[in-house]
Amino acid sequence: MHAQVRLPRLISDNMVLQRETQLNLWGWATAGENITISFAGQQYETITPADGHWHVAVPPMEAGGPYDMKIDASNHLTIRNILIGDVWLCSGQSNMELPMTRLKDKYPAVIAAATNPNIRAFNVATRMNWQQPLDDLETGSWAMADPESVLQFSGVGYFFAKALYEKYHIPIGIIRAAAGGSTAEAWLSDEALQQFPAIYNALKLRDPKYLDSIRKADQKASNDWYSQLWWQDKGMQAPVKWSDNSYNPHDWKSMNIPGYWHDQGLKNIHGVVWFRKTIQVPASMAGQPARLFLGNIVDRDSVYLNGQLIGSTQYQYPPRKYPIPAGMLQQGTNTIVVRVINYSGNGGFYKDKPYQLFTPTDTIDLKGPWQYQLGAATDPIPPAMTFYTQPLGLYNGMIAPLLPYTIKGVIWYQGEANADRPAEYSQLFPALIKDWRIKWGSMHPMQHFPFLYVQLTSYMPGHPQPTSSNWALLREAQLKTLSVPNTAMAVTIDIGEWNDIHPLNKEDVGKRLALAARKLAYNDSLVVSSGPLYKDMSIQGNKIIIRFTNTGKGLLAKGGPLKHFAIAGPDQQFRWAHAQIVNNTVVVWHPSVSKPIAVRYAWDDTPEGANLFNKEGLPASPFRTDDFAR
User: Which residues belong to any copy of the Sialate O-acetylesterase domain (predicted)?
Assistant: First the structure.
């Protein structure tokens, strides 16, 4: 039942509406309710139909504002400070979701200068539903960019919007609908999933009773595991807790941090391991506010300074950056204690991350030997269902409510959660693009809106010899998706971090997506929007000649001779190859391969040293010329 006029969350103060196309306003009211909308000097009238769901079409408008909108019925609503500009949906998984607050140490000047009322963001809260598409969001509001609000903007989305605004000076609205760990199929509609019977028929979560039973069973298993661990942990049950400053660790052993305890004497251990380090604080740091950086920890941690808890993180990916209030640091001896819970995989501390305690004037390096003691050992935590990976749920909960809202296009950063199924992704991802275009196109003339996406960056250690890689195959699936009309891809292979699935350089990601938007969505035919993309090859004697599109002003070997090319003969065994730029092609060879048949470039999880670019500074996409099984 609907009574007075109610509006969706998206239609609210500070919103950005899409310019130069028909706009769709909608809401709910009692059947028969007369509704008048006054907007930008025009009036629009409608009568609420029997289903209580009304729509009003607004003719295309030019960029501008701000405007107010008045809605008059049995109640009266005013929506203030509306801009007309370009609206982009920012979707995918955690690298799109990751907010600017996680980047504040990398981009302090950018955040300090973020005041721009013409850049606005709406964050869609994570919500799943497997029974039906939802018609509205539970929470959310539009925010104008300033140094405080921007901390909650998508990092990729903000840098994308910033680059577009600086180029075109048109208001930009970004709608973030992204969920960490989500698979592509989680964002597909019921209709689209039907072309994947193995996925569609296995979806049992449509049954609310089954869903509830899974949630309850998983919660109980988790609660039981942590409860048992608590009572087994000798560090928490001892007469003097191991976090206490007065505790004497006389029998603790030594382990180097950073590193994993599997490599340092604690093999196949899950549970709790305590770490302790005594440091000497100079008078210049004593009493000062400080920060403690402890890299990344697998999986959970609680950190104590001189016996007082200063911070805790519940899963492995966020960087550990803990503030230390003024007065806590003492001149002379201070003790840092870290209680680490590992529930699966190898527990410990990420390598090549900052481990230090510092004030503006002094830094204490915390790398090296720490004392450690096993608090409790147990089996890995029982596996639980990851709901973000389940088909359909995120589409119904986070995309369906957006469909009436007119958008310019989509930017997408996802694929990590599908990397173990790259062949399937080559079908899922194009299906998702088609699905969304159909769904939005049912309400707007936008069946072919631009869809811009990020190719997976580098992650995990590289290999000393040429190898196959699921991440390389997933990148290939993304590369091939460029065959879908009106798509573009931002290559990021050069700005990843081998030890962090969430690399911090989100500025270049946003800028490269903006270059793609300039080419595809803003019809800038002169912009070079991509790095080199593999076109074709030819064999000349013992050499293979590789040709590319998107070479711009020419190919470039950045920082020295070309690296990370591999070549194979009829035995299909790849060897690191010599590679040289000749007349805007790349010539590849190896002295021991007399009859080459295939070349691969940057074909690894982290292809360290891969350095083929165009002279505009954009990296070449990883590629292979073969279709070998692996």
Answer: 86-232, 406-515
515 & 418 share domain = yes
For helices 155-168 and 507-520, the axis angle rounded to 10 degrees is 50
**What is the bridge-based pairing of β-strands 409-413 and 565-568?**
unpaired
> Does 597 score more than 80 pLDDT?
yes
At 249, which CATH number? Answer: 2.60.120.260
Structural element, H or E, at residue 223: helix 208-232
Torsional sign, CA 523, 524, 526, 530:
negative
* Verdict on whether the full-model pTM lies above 0.90: yes
Q: Per the domain annotation, does 257 fall within a domain?
A: yes
Write down the residue that tokens 């000649």 correspond to: 545
Residue 1: per-residue pLDDT: 47
Distance in angstroms (rounded) separating the CA atoms of residues 119 and 333? 49
Whether the CB-CB separation of 522 and 168 falls below 8 Å is answered with yes
Q: Does residue 603 contact residue 591 with C-beta atoms inside 8 Å?
A: no
Q: How many domains does the chain have?
A: 3
- Would 19 be classed as within a structural domain? no
DSSP letter at 344 equals S
Of 317, 345, 378, which residue is a domain's last? 378
pLDDT digits (tens, 9 = 90+) for 170-226: 999 999 999 999 999 999 999 999 999 999 999 999 999 999 999 999 999 999 999
Per-residue burial over 547-586, b = 16 or more CB atoms within 10 Å of its CB, e = otherwise: ebebbbeebbebeeebbbbbbbbeeeebbebebebeeebb
Residues 189, 147 within the same domain? yes
Length of the chain: 630
pLDDT at 448: 87
Domain boundary among 335, 354, 378: 378
CA distances for 304 relative to 151, 225, 328, angstroms: 27, 23, 11
Structure-token pair, residue 208: 């609310």
CATH code at position 411: 3.40.50.1110
Res 456 pLDDT > 50: yes
Are residues 186 and 134 part of one domain?
yes
Q: Is residue 368 part of a domain?
A: yes
Residue 30 pLDDT class (50, 70, 90 cuts)? very high
What DSSP assignment string belongs to 106-132? T-HHHHHT--EEEEEEEEPPP---SSS
Q: Assess whether pLDDT exceeds 80 at residue 49.
A: yes
CA pair distance 405, 9, nearest whole angstrom: 11
Range of the domain at 248: 240-378
User: pLDDT tens across 324-372, in order?
Assistant: 999 999 999 999 999 999 999 999 999 999 999 999 999 999 999 999 9
Residues 185 and 132 in one domain: yes
